[in-house]
Specification:
Layout lengths: L1 H14 L2 H8 L3 H15 L4 E3 L4 E3 L1 H27 L5 E7 L1 H6 L1 H11 L3 E7 L2 H9 L5 E5 L7 E15 L19 E6 L4 H12 L4 E7 L2 H9 L5 E4 H10 L3 E2 L7 E10 L6 H13 L2
Length: 294
C-alpha cells in the first residue's frame, strides 16, 4: 500500500538516517532505499539529499513530508473508526510510567486491558517522573503516568489517584517501635533515597528541608525496589509509597514510622498532549485505568 511507502519516507525524514529508520521499521536498508527511490520515480523529482552521516530533505521532500504526516494520521483515524464499527480496538499504545506506577500499579491495570483489547500492541517504558514528562513533551509516548506535582502547562495533566507516602525502617532500627515519633526525632539519621528527578525523591527532599532535618549520611538508588531492599537490610530510613512497601509491612520485613501530626500524600497523574487527539486504544486504556483505581 502507498501508506507503507509513506511511512518509510516519514521515518527516514524524522530519523535523518536510513540505517536507523530501517531498524525502527524492521526492514533492510536496501528495502528502505527502494521505497524512497519508488517515491522519487513516482513524483519525478529528488526528495532527499543523502550523505553517509545525514539525510536532508529537498524542497519537494519538505512538502511531501508535511502532507505524508497528514495522510498517515487520517489513515490511522479511518482505521480506528472502521474497527469501532466492529467493536474492535486495535493499533498501538505507547506509554511512559514512573517506577512506582510502572512496577506496582500498572501491571494490574494492563492485565485487564490486555484481556479486553488483545489486538492492541502495548509498549511501556519505565523511568523517573522527570524523564517521562520530557518524553511526553517530545511526542515519544501517547501518555505518561507520573508521581507528585507536575509543572507542565503545555500538557494535559489529569490526577487519577492519591498515593500515601510512608516513612519506613528495618525492624531493628531504633525508630521502629511502632509508635509515632516527633519529626525532630528524625534528626541525624541515615537516609536511603531515590535519584534526583524522581517523584519519590522530591517528597523526601521536601520533608527533610521543611522540617529542618540534618542527614547523617544518604545512599541514593535509581529504583524504589532498590531503596526498599536497602532499608530492609538496615541501611537507613526511607520515605516510599505505601504501594511499594505494603507487602513488607504486612510480613514484618519493614516497619512504618508514623510522624506525629503529619500525613504525606501526592497525586498520581496522567499526562497527554493537548494537540494530538487521543486514539481509541488510548481512550480505552484511560477508561480501564480509572476503573481500577477507584
Amino acid at each position: 500500500m502507498i501508506t507503507d511507502t509513506l511511512k518509510v519516507f516519514v521515518t527516514v525524514a524524522e530519523q535523518r538516517n536510513f540505517s536507523q529508520a530501517a531498524k525502527l521499521l524492521n526492514l533492510s536498508q536496501p528495502g528502505v532505499s527502494l521505497h524512497i527511490r519508488n517515491l522519487e520515480n513516482e513524483f519525478g523529482t529528488k526528495l532527499m539529499h543523502r550523505s553517509p552521516k545525514l539525510v536532508k530533505l529537498t524542497e519537494a521532500g519538505e512538502i511531501l513530508f508535511g502532507k505524508a504526516q497528514q495522510i498517515l494520521a487520517m489513515y490511522d483515524e479511518a482505521k480506528q473508526d472502521i474497527y469501532m464499527l466492529r467493536d474492535e480496538v486495535t493499533g498501538s499504545l505507547s506509554m511512559g510510567a514512573s517506577f512506582t506506577i510502572g512496577e506496582y500499579i500498572l501491571p494490574r491495570v494492563l492485565a485487564e486491558y490486555a484481556q479486553q483489547y488483545p489486538l492492541v500492541d502495548v509498549q511501556v517504558h519505565i523511568s523517573n517522573s522527570d524523564n517521562i514528562l520530557q518524553d511526553v513533551r517530545a511526542g515519544r509516548f501517547h501518555i505518561g503516568l507520573v508521581e507528585g506535582k507536575v509543572d507542565a502547562k503545555d500538557l494535559q495533566v489529569t490526577p487519577f489517584m492519591k498515593d500515601e507516602m510512608v516513612l519506613v525502617a528495618s525492624p531493628d532500627h531504633l525508630l521502629a517501635s511502632g509508635k509515632s515519633v516527633d519529626v525532630s526525632q528524625l534528626q541525624g539519621h541515615v537516609w536511603v533515597m531515590r535519584e534526583t528527578g524522581s517523584g519519590t525523591r522530591a517528597y523526601s527532599d521536601r520533608l527533610i528541608q521543611d522540617s529542618g532535618l540534618s542527614v547523617k549520611r544518604s545512599f541514593v538508588f535509581n529504583s524504589s525496589q532498590s531503596v526498599k531492599e536497602a532499608v530492609t537490610w538496615g541501611l537507613g530510613i526511607a520515605l516510599l509509597s505505601r504501594w511499594v512497601v505494603c507487602k513488607e509491612l504486612e510480613s514484618g520485613e519493614l516497619c512504618e514510622i508514623p510522624i506525629r501530626g503529619m500525613k504525606i500524600s501526592r497525586d498520581l497523574s496522567l499526562l497527554q498532549s493537548k494537540d494530538e487527539p487521543a486514539v481509541m486504544a488510548v481512550l480505552k486504556f484511560i477508561q480501564t485505568l480509572n476503573q481500577n483505581v477507584q
